[in-house]
Structure to design on (368 residues):
Protein backbone atom coordinates (compact mmCIF):
# COMPACT_ATOMS: atom_id res chain seq x y z
CA UNK A 1 0.00 0.00 0.00
CA UNK A 2 2.80 2.39 0.95
CA UNK A 3 4.86 1.93 -2.22
CA UNK A 4 1.70 1.98 -4.33
CA UNK A 5 0.56 5.31 -2.87
CA UNK A 6 4.04 6.80 -3.37
CA UNK A 7 3.94 5.84 -7.06
CA UNK A 8 0.38 7.04 -7.66
CA UNK A 9 0.95 10.43 -6.05
CA UNK A 10 4.40 10.80 -7.63
CA UNK A 11 2.92 10.26 -11.10
CA UNK A 12 0.29 12.94 -10.59
CA UNK A 13 2.57 15.45 -8.84
CA UNK A 14 5.39 14.98 -11.37
CA UNK A 15 3.25 16.01 -14.35
CA UNK A 16 2.15 19.24 -12.66
CA UNK A 17 5.59 19.89 -11.10
CA UNK A 18 7.31 19.71 -14.50
CA UNK A 19 4.98 22.30 -16.03
CA UNK A 20 5.26 24.59 -12.99
CA UNK A 21 9.07 24.38 -12.80
CA UNK A 22 9.57 25.13 -16.50
CA UNK A 23 7.18 28.11 -16.39
CA UNK A 24 8.81 29.49 -13.22
CA UNK A 25 12.23 29.07 -14.79
CA UNK A 26 11.08 30.96 -17.90
CA UNK A 27 9.80 33.79 -15.67
CA UNK A 28 13.15 33.89 -13.91
CA UNK A 29 15.07 33.91 -17.21
CA UNK A 30 12.85 36.74 -18.55
CA UNK A 31 13.31 38.57 -15.22
CA UNK A 32 9.57 38.91 -14.54
CA UNK A 33 7.85 38.34 -11.20
CA UNK A 34 7.11 34.76 -10.20
CA UNK A 35 4.35 35.73 -7.77
CA UNK A 36 1.68 34.62 -10.27
CA UNK A 37 2.34 31.02 -9.13
CA UNK A 38 0.58 31.52 -5.76
CA UNK A 39 -2.50 32.94 -7.47
CA UNK A 40 -2.51 30.07 -10.00
CA UNK A 41 -2.06 27.35 -7.35
CA UNK A 42 -4.87 28.71 -5.15
CA UNK A 43 -7.31 28.80 -8.08
CA UNK A 44 -6.09 25.39 -9.25
CA UNK A 45 -6.56 23.75 -5.83
CA UNK A 46 -10.04 25.27 -5.44
CA UNK A 47 -10.88 24.01 -8.94
CA UNK A 48 -9.49 20.54 -8.18
CA UNK A 49 -11.55 20.31 -4.98
CA UNK A 50 -14.76 21.29 -6.76
CA UNK A 51 -14.03 18.78 -9.53
CA UNK A 52 -13.32 16.01 -6.98
CA UNK A 53 -16.57 16.73 -5.08
CA UNK A 54 -18.63 16.54 -8.28
CA UNK A 55 -16.71 13.63 -9.85
CA UNK A 56 -19.75 11.31 -9.75
CA UNK A 57 -21.98 13.82 -11.52
CA UNK A 58 -19.25 14.56 -14.07
CA UNK A 59 -18.64 10.82 -14.64
CA UNK A 60 -22.28 10.12 -15.40
CA UNK A 61 -22.75 13.22 -17.58
CA UNK A 62 -22.77 12.91 -21.38
CA UNK A 63 -23.86 9.26 -21.32
CA UNK A 64 -21.10 8.21 -18.92
CA UNK A 65 -18.11 9.82 -20.61
CA UNK A 66 -18.19 13.24 -18.90
CA UNK A 67 -14.91 12.52 -17.11
CA UNK A 68 -13.11 11.86 -20.40
CA UNK A 69 -14.58 15.01 -21.98
CA UNK A 70 -13.53 17.24 -19.05
CA UNK A 71 -10.05 15.70 -18.73
CA UNK A 72 -9.30 15.83 -22.45
CA UNK A 73 -10.51 19.45 -22.52
CA UNK A 74 -8.09 20.26 -19.69
CA UNK A 75 -5.23 18.67 -21.68
CA UNK A 76 -6.21 20.52 -24.87
CA UNK A 77 -6.45 23.82 -22.95
CA UNK A 78 -2.96 23.30 -21.50
CA UNK A 79 -1.70 22.66 -25.04
CA UNK A 80 -3.33 25.87 -26.35
CA UNK A 81 -1.98 27.89 -23.43
CA UNK A 82 1.55 26.58 -24.09
CA UNK A 83 1.26 27.57 -27.79
CA UNK A 84 0.14 31.09 -26.80
CA UNK A 85 2.84 31.27 -24.15
CA UNK A 86 5.61 30.53 -26.65
CA UNK A 87 4.23 33.29 -28.87
CA UNK A 88 3.92 35.79 -26.02
CA UNK A 89 7.30 35.40 -24.29
CA UNK A 90 9.16 37.02 -27.19
CA UNK A 91 8.20 40.60 -26.35
CA UNK A 92 7.22 42.61 -23.30
CA UNK A 93 4.31 43.97 -25.40
CA UNK A 94 2.55 40.65 -24.75
CA UNK A 95 3.29 40.64 -21.01
CA UNK A 96 -0.38 40.32 -19.99
CA UNK A 97 -1.01 37.47 -22.42
CA UNK A 98 2.09 35.69 -21.14
CA UNK A 99 0.97 35.99 -17.53
CA UNK A 100 -2.52 34.81 -18.46
CA UNK A 101 -1.23 31.72 -20.28
CA UNK A 102 1.18 30.80 -17.46
CA UNK A 103 -1.61 31.04 -14.88
CA UNK A 104 -3.91 29.14 -17.25
CA UNK A 105 -1.42 26.25 -17.69
CA UNK A 106 -0.86 25.85 -13.95
CA UNK A 107 -4.57 26.14 -13.07
CA UNK A 108 -5.54 23.46 -15.63
CA UNK A 109 -2.66 21.14 -14.65
CA UNK A 110 -3.49 21.52 -10.94
CA UNK A 111 -7.18 20.79 -11.54
CA UNK A 112 -6.34 17.69 -13.62
CA UNK A 113 -3.71 16.16 -11.33
CA UNK A 114 -4.96 17.61 -8.02
CA UNK A 115 -8.48 16.23 -8.43
CA UNK A 116 -7.13 12.68 -8.88
CA UNK A 117 -5.00 13.05 -5.75
CA UNK A 118 -8.00 14.28 -3.73
CA UNK A 119 -10.23 11.46 -5.04
CA UNK A 120 -7.55 8.87 -4.24
CA UNK A 121 -6.81 10.07 -0.69
CA UNK A 122 -10.38 10.89 0.29
CA UNK A 123 -11.38 7.27 -0.43
CA UNK A 124 -9.33 6.19 2.59
CA UNK A 125 -10.82 8.62 5.12
CA UNK A 126 -13.28 5.93 6.27
CA UNK A 127 -10.49 3.42 7.03
CA UNK A 128 -8.08 5.01 9.57
CA UNK A 129 -5.34 2.34 9.49
CA UNK A 130 -4.98 2.58 5.68
CA UNK A 131 -5.36 6.37 5.78
CA UNK A 132 -2.13 6.81 7.76
CA UNK A 133 -0.13 4.61 5.37
CA UNK A 134 -1.60 6.36 2.33
CA UNK A 135 -0.92 9.80 3.84
CA UNK A 136 2.73 8.94 4.48
CA UNK A 137 3.05 7.51 0.97
CA UNK A 138 1.44 10.63 -0.48
CA UNK A 139 3.80 12.95 1.38
CA UNK A 140 6.82 10.94 0.15
CA UNK A 141 5.45 10.89 -3.42
CA UNK A 142 4.77 14.64 -3.33
CA UNK A 143 8.28 15.24 -1.98
CA UNK A 144 9.95 13.26 -4.78
CA UNK A 145 7.78 14.94 -7.44
CA UNK A 146 8.51 18.44 -6.18
CA UNK A 147 12.24 17.61 -5.89
CA UNK A 148 12.35 16.65 -9.56
CA UNK A 149 10.56 19.91 -10.40
CA UNK A 150 13.05 21.90 -8.30
CA UNK A 151 15.91 20.11 -10.09
CA UNK A 152 14.59 21.21 -13.51
CA UNK A 153 14.02 24.76 -12.23
CA UNK A 154 17.61 25.15 -11.05
CA UNK A 155 18.93 23.36 -14.13
CA UNK A 156 17.28 25.95 -16.41
CA UNK A 157 17.89 29.04 -14.25
CA UNK A 158 21.57 28.22 -13.69
CA UNK A 159 22.15 28.42 -17.45
CA UNK A 160 22.70 31.56 -19.52
CA UNK A 161 19.56 33.08 -21.08
CA UNK A 162 20.55 31.63 -24.46
CA UNK A 163 20.85 28.02 -23.26
CA UNK A 164 18.21 28.17 -20.52
CA UNK A 165 15.42 29.45 -22.75
CA UNK A 166 16.26 26.83 -25.40
CA UNK A 167 16.07 23.99 -22.84
CA UNK A 168 12.82 25.39 -21.36
CA UNK A 169 11.20 25.66 -24.81
CA UNK A 170 12.38 22.15 -25.69
CA UNK A 171 10.78 20.77 -22.52
CA UNK A 172 7.58 22.70 -23.28
CA UNK A 173 7.41 21.08 -26.73
CA UNK A 174 7.62 17.63 -25.09
CA UNK A 175 5.04 18.49 -22.41
CA UNK A 176 2.67 19.87 -25.05
CA UNK A 177 3.03 16.69 -27.11
CA UNK A 178 2.18 14.59 -24.05
CA UNK A 179 -0.98 16.69 -23.56
CA UNK A 180 -2.13 15.91 -27.11
CA UNK A 181 -1.41 12.17 -26.68
CA UNK A 182 -3.40 12.01 -23.44
CA UNK A 183 -6.28 14.04 -24.87
CA UNK A 184 -6.62 11.78 -27.93
CA UNK A 185 -6.39 8.64 -25.76
CA UNK A 186 -9.26 9.89 -23.56
CA UNK A 187 -11.39 10.79 -26.58
CA UNK A 188 -10.85 7.28 -27.98
CA UNK A 189 -11.79 5.78 -24.60
CA UNK A 190 -15.02 7.81 -24.69
CA UNK A 191 -15.68 6.63 -28.27
CA UNK A 192 -15.70 10.25 -29.50
CA UNK A 193 -12.70 9.51 -31.75
CA UNK A 194 -13.24 6.05 -33.21
CA UNK A 195 -10.69 3.49 -32.07
CA UNK A 196 -8.31 1.80 -34.47
CA UNK A 197 -5.77 -1.00 -34.41
CA UNK A 198 -2.50 0.23 -32.90
CA UNK A 199 0.14 1.35 -35.39
CA UNK A 200 2.85 -0.54 -33.53
CA UNK A 201 3.54 -2.33 -30.25
CA UNK A 202 6.75 -1.30 -28.52
CA UNK A 203 5.84 -2.86 -25.15
CA UNK A 204 8.51 -5.55 -25.55
CA UNK A 205 11.07 -2.76 -26.09
CA UNK A 206 9.91 -0.37 -23.35
CA UNK A 207 7.04 -1.66 -21.23
CA UNK A 208 4.61 0.91 -19.85
CA UNK A 209 4.78 -1.06 -16.61
CA UNK A 210 8.53 -0.52 -16.17
CA UNK A 211 9.94 2.39 -14.18
CA UNK A 212 11.52 3.77 -17.36
CA UNK A 213 8.21 3.45 -19.20
CA UNK A 214 6.40 5.27 -16.36
CA UNK A 215 8.96 8.08 -16.47
CA UNK A 216 8.60 8.35 -20.24
CA UNK A 217 4.83 8.50 -19.76
CA UNK A 218 5.12 11.39 -17.29
CA UNK A 219 7.58 13.29 -19.49
CA UNK A 220 6.47 12.46 -23.03
CA UNK A 221 3.09 10.76 -22.66
CA UNK A 222 4.72 7.51 -23.85
CA UNK A 223 2.26 5.00 -25.28
CA UNK A 224 3.44 1.48 -26.23
CA UNK A 225 0.50 0.84 -28.59
CA UNK A 226 -0.55 4.14 -30.17
CA UNK A 227 -3.24 4.27 -32.86
CA UNK A 228 -2.64 6.05 -36.21
CA UNK A 229 -4.85 9.01 -35.15
CA UNK A 230 -2.78 9.49 -31.99
CA UNK A 231 0.50 9.43 -33.92
CA UNK A 232 -0.79 11.90 -36.53
CA UNK A 233 -2.09 14.32 -33.86
CA UNK A 234 1.18 14.00 -31.92
CA UNK A 235 3.37 14.77 -34.95
CA UNK A 236 1.11 17.66 -35.99
CA UNK A 237 1.24 19.13 -32.47
CA UNK A 238 5.04 18.86 -32.41
CA UNK A 239 5.26 20.58 -35.81
CA UNK A 240 3.16 23.54 -34.63
CA UNK A 241 5.14 23.81 -31.37
CA UNK A 242 8.52 23.59 -33.12
CA UNK A 243 7.43 26.22 -35.66
CA UNK A 244 6.33 28.60 -32.88
CA UNK A 245 9.54 27.96 -30.95
CA UNK A 246 11.77 28.76 -33.94
CA UNK A 247 9.83 31.98 -34.59
CA UNK A 248 10.30 33.08 -30.98
CA UNK A 249 13.99 32.14 -30.97
CA UNK A 250 14.54 34.07 -34.22
CA UNK A 251 12.86 37.11 -32.65
CA UNK A 252 15.17 36.90 -29.61
CA UNK A 253 18.10 36.50 -31.96
CA UNK A 254 17.18 39.57 -34.08
CA UNK A 255 17.01 41.68 -30.93
CA UNK A 256 20.39 40.42 -29.83
CA UNK A 257 19.05 38.67 -26.74
CA UNK A 258 20.56 35.31 -27.64
CA UNK B 1 -42.15 13.87 -53.42
CA UNK B 2 -42.22 15.22 -49.85
CA UNK B 3 -44.72 12.57 -48.79
CA UNK B 4 -42.75 9.67 -50.19
CA UNK B 5 -39.64 11.10 -48.54
CA UNK B 6 -41.34 11.05 -45.16
CA UNK B 7 -42.84 7.63 -45.77
CA UNK B 8 -39.75 5.80 -47.01
CA UNK B 9 -36.56 7.69 -46.39
CA UNK B 10 -37.01 8.73 -42.79
CA UNK B 11 -37.64 5.17 -41.55
CA UNK B 12 -34.60 4.01 -43.56
CA UNK B 13 -32.44 6.81 -42.14
CA UNK B 14 -33.63 6.07 -38.62
CA UNK B 15 -32.82 2.41 -39.10
CA UNK B 16 -29.34 3.11 -40.48
CA UNK B 17 -28.39 5.57 -37.75
CA UNK B 18 -29.84 3.60 -34.87
CA UNK B 19 -28.17 0.37 -35.91
CA UNK B 20 -24.64 1.05 -34.56
CA UNK B 21 -26.09 2.03 -31.15
CA UNK B 22 -27.74 -1.34 -30.75
CA UNK B 23 -24.72 -3.15 -32.15
CA UNK B 24 -22.37 -2.28 -29.25
CA UNK B 25 -22.47 -5.16 -26.73
CA UNK B 26 -22.52 -4.13 -23.08
CA UNK B 27 -20.60 -5.97 -20.35
CA UNK B 28 -20.90 -5.17 -16.65
CA UNK B 29 -18.01 -5.55 -14.21
CA UNK B 30 -18.57 -5.03 -10.49
CA UNK B 31 -16.00 -4.02 -7.90
CA UNK B 32 -16.52 -5.43 -4.38
CA UNK B 33 -13.90 -5.45 -1.61
CA UNK B 34 -11.29 -4.37 -4.20
CA UNK B 35 -11.98 -7.38 -6.44
CA UNK B 36 -13.42 -7.45 -9.96
CA UNK B 37 -16.53 -9.61 -10.61
CA UNK B 38 -16.16 -11.22 -13.08
CA UNK B 39 -12.36 -11.04 -13.11
CA UNK B 40 -12.26 -12.47 -16.64
CA UNK B 41 -14.47 -11.35 -19.48
CA UNK B 42 -14.62 -12.66 -23.02
CA UNK B 43 -15.31 -10.46 -26.01
CA UNK B 44 -15.37 -11.25 -29.73
CA UNK B 45 -12.53 -10.29 -32.10
CA UNK B 46 -12.77 -6.90 -33.88
CA UNK B 47 -15.80 -5.79 -31.91
CA UNK B 48 -16.33 -2.60 -29.97
CA UNK B 49 -17.64 -3.28 -26.45
CA UNK B 50 -19.06 -0.94 -23.81
CA UNK B 51 -17.86 -1.79 -20.30
CA UNK B 52 -19.96 -0.58 -17.38
CA UNK B 53 -17.88 -0.72 -14.21
CA UNK B 54 -19.87 -0.51 -10.99
CA UNK B 55 -17.89 0.26 -7.83
CA UNK B 56 -19.72 -1.00 -4.71
CA UNK B 57 -16.82 -0.11 -2.38
CA UNK B 58 -16.70 3.16 -0.43
CA UNK B 59 -13.18 3.80 -1.77
CA UNK B 60 -12.54 5.08 -5.29
CA UNK B 61 -10.84 2.83 -7.80
CA UNK B 62 -9.01 3.55 -11.02
CA UNK B 63 -9.63 1.06 -13.80
CA UNK B 64 -6.34 0.82 -15.65
CA UNK B 65 -4.90 -1.30 -18.43
CA UNK B 66 -1.64 -0.69 -20.27
CA UNK B 67 -2.57 -3.30 -22.89
CA UNK B 68 -5.98 -1.72 -23.56
CA UNK B 69 -4.69 1.86 -23.15
CA UNK B 70 -7.47 2.67 -20.72
CA UNK B 71 -7.49 4.63 -17.49
CA UNK B 72 -10.53 5.90 -15.61
CA UNK B 73 -11.41 6.83 -12.04
CA UNK B 74 -14.53 5.10 -10.73
CA UNK B 75 -15.66 6.93 -7.56
CA UNK B 76 -16.80 4.83 -4.58
CA UNK B 77 -20.47 3.82 -4.84
CA UNK B 78 -20.61 4.96 -8.44
CA UNK B 79 -20.11 3.63 -11.95
CA UNK B 80 -18.16 4.42 -15.06
CA UNK B 81 -18.37 3.63 -18.76
CA UNK B 82 -15.37 2.67 -20.89
CA UNK B 83 -15.36 1.67 -24.54
CA UNK B 84 -12.83 -0.99 -25.61
CA UNK B 85 -12.06 -2.64 -28.93
CA UNK B 86 -12.16 -3.49 -31.77
CA UNK B 87 -9.22 -5.69 -30.77
CA UNK B 88 -7.22 -8.58 -32.26
CA UNK B 89 -7.28 -11.95 -30.44
CA UNK B 90 -5.30 -12.09 -27.23
CA UNK B 91 -5.31 -11.46 -23.51
CA UNK B 92 -5.48 -7.93 -22.14
CA UNK B 93 -4.90 -7.65 -18.37
CA UNK B 94 -6.49 -4.80 -16.41
CA UNK B 95 -6.19 -3.78 -12.76
CA UNK B 96 -7.40 -1.34 -10.16
CA UNK B 97 -4.58 1.14 -9.76
CA UNK B 98 -5.61 2.10 -6.23
CA UNK B 99 -5.66 -1.54 -4.99
CA UNK B 100 -3.43 -3.38 -7.48
CA UNK B 101 -2.70 -6.32 -5.16
CA UNK B 102 -6.26 -7.62 -5.25
CA UNK B 103 -8.04 -5.81 -8.07
CA UNK B 104 -6.80 -7.79 -11.07
CA UNK B 105 -8.60 -9.03 -14.15
CA UNK B 106 -8.31 -9.61 -17.87
CA UNK B 107 -10.19 -9.25 -21.11
CA UNK B 108 -9.92 -12.29 -23.37
CA UNK B 109 -10.53 -11.53 -27.02
CA UNK B 110 -11.33 -14.56 -29.21
Amino acid sequence: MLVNSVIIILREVLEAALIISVLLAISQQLKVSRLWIFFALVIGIIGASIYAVYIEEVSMAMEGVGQEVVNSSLHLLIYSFIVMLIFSIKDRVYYRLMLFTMVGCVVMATIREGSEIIIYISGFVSSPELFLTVSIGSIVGTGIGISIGVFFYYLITSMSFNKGIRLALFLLILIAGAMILQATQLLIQADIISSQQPLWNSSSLISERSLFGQMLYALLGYEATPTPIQVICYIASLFLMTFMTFKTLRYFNQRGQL
Amino acid sequence: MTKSFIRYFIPILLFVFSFPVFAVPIIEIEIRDHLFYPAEIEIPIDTKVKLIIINHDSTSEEFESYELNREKVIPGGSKGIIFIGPLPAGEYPFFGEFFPKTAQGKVIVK
The mean pLDDT of chain B is 86.
